[in-house]
Structure to design on (47 residues):
C-alpha cells in the first residue's frame, strides 16, 4: 500500500484531504507541523 504523510496545521483541512486519499487506497498519516513531520518521516523510512 502506498503511504502519504500530510503536514498541515489546519486540522479540518488535513482530515478532508485524508478522507479523499484513504478512499483512493492510500495509507495516510498526519502531522501538524514540519518539525514533527520530518521526525515522523525519518522514523518511517525503510532503506
Amino acid at each position: 500500500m502506498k503511504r502519504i504523510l500530510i503536514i498541515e496545521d489546519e486540522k479540518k483541512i488535513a482530515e478532508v484531504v485524508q478522507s479523499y486519499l484513504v478512499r483512493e487506497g492510500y495509507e495516510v498519516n498526519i502531522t501538524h507541523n514540519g518539525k514533527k513531520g520530518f521526525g515522523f518521516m525519518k522514523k518511517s523510512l525503510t532503506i
